[in-house]
Amino acid sequence: MNHKPQCSDAGHFTAMRYDTAGAQRVRQATQQLEGWAHGWPEVNPQRIYATCLYFAEPAPWLSIEALVASSMWALWTFALDDLVDEGALTAQEFAPRFERYVGIARGIADVPDGSREDPLAALLHEVCEALSRSDVFTAARPYLARSLSDTLLAMLQEQEWRQNYVQYGTQPTYADYIENGLRSIGVIPCLWTMLIGTGDASALRHIDHLTVHMRHAAVCVRLANDMRSYRKELSEKNINSMTILAKDEERTGQTRATAVDAARQQVNRLVDQEFAICLANSHDTRTDTDCPEHGILNTARWAIEFYRHQGFLTCQPGTEFQDFGWTSDHS
Fold first, then answer.
1. Is the distance from CB of 239 to CB of 172 less than 8 angstroms?
2. Over the Cα atoms of the chain, what is R_g?
3. pTM for this one?
4. Rounded to an integer, what distance in angstroms lies between the CA atom of residue 143 and that of residue 162?
5. Max Cα-Cα span within the chain
6. CA proximity to 46, closest of 310, 239, 299, 238
7. Alpha carbon distance, N-terminus to C-terminus of the chain
8. What pLDDT digit, counting tens, does each position of 92-133 carry?
């Protein structure tokens, strides 16, 4: 991955217009990932196409190799999240895996012999091998590993909250939830893989600057996902921002239906507020190519529009970019 993109034409990259070349990149990456996934039953092939879109549309400068590697990381995260959500991985079983996964991401942990003991460990090792083809991977690896550690800790916190909700009916405050949720959604590690694939080494000189951008983008993705998954989470006795805010509204004496509607309106306002911050942040570009800043902004924009229409399991080939309503003016 020695290609170094030039993103100085911000208008071109933030527009994310549909074009034939973009569709071809997605098809090519999807085909490669489908072939790769045959060897990993832990990877749900129904998510491959949408995952390619998740990186290809916000970061059209990524090479096919970088697009595939970043998508592999996201698909690994989905596989882990499925185990946690389905209850196949308890908090007690998660703890030793936590150290192993972070160690593999850092490059300091061995993969267990064979894949029977922990196939996700072997899968993560293979994903890191794919990412390592970028010139900036070695320097960026500690930040990727740290963001993964934050994500895993947040997943553990969500497990605890869910147990408390099921047993006692208690929920965290919205503030506590969103601080944890911006990490548990796994967006920040994915953004790191995007930066690694971009190959702009100057990003490593602006970690604090980019971290602020990533946090606000992750909040946008978290809230957009929460609105999309509200009914599913409710049926599975999980919590998200909608369940928390709706319960707050019910405490004021509103009916359930009115409370849910008020919560949805509130989450929509919060998304708008966070995206406005993302947009303002994107004007403060400091990296050599501007790609890191625009990739982060575009990820937030993509997720907001995507979750209005689709989910990662429902979006399949044939869903073109223009279906999400992109325009060239998002200012």
1. yes
2. 19
3. 0.91
4. 29
5. 60
6. 310
7. 32
8. 888 888 999 999 999 998 776 655 678 999 999 999 999 999
